[in-house]
Amino acid sequence: MNDEKITIEWANPERNLIRVIYKQRGWTWRELEAIFKQQFALIETVTHPRVDILIEVGASNWLPTGIPLLSVVKNVAQYIHPRQGCTVIVGARGFLKALSDSIMRLRSMTYRNFHFVDTLPQAQALLDEVRRQRDKANSRAAG
């Protein structure tokens, strides 16, 4: 049995979408930091101008234990890769979701590409739309 609390992998053969799954409650900042470093390293292995991130938190607490939320928000920002595209967080609920969303809006330049959705189909629809808009902008810039 795999006892990892958080897993990370490429979500597609094109390697332009990383999937992070928070499988259990009780993970720590150290485990989260290791995932951020892996995510950064995965992005470094490809040359795509943007790599999107799909984060599934439905089975977890989605914030590390023992650390205040503001510290998490501050620390996460240092692990955002320059080529990291849209980050979609699936399944976050309740007060922490509302509070996190508010903080991310206040720090809008850092977290402008972070979005919360309830389901995987909503995440896919959002990613499809973001990629359509990105492709359209790239076409205009090239032409």
Provide the β-strand percentage band.
Answer: 15-25%
The CATH topology label is: Transcription Regulator spoIIAA
Q: How is the largest sheet built, in terms of strand order?
A: 1-2-3-4-5
What is the domain total for the residues? 1
**What's the overall average pLDDT, rounded?**
82
Short summary of the structure?
The chain is of the alpha/beta class and 143 residues long. The chain has a single domain (6-142), classed as Transcription Regulator spoIIAA.
Structural account:
There is one protein chain. This protein is an alpha/beta fold. The chain has a single domain, classed as 2-Layer Sandwich (Transcription Regulator spoIIAA), CATH 3.30.750. A 5-stranded mixed beta sheet has the order 1-2-3-4-5, sandwiched between helices. It is globular. The model has no long low-confidence stretch (mean pLDDT 82).
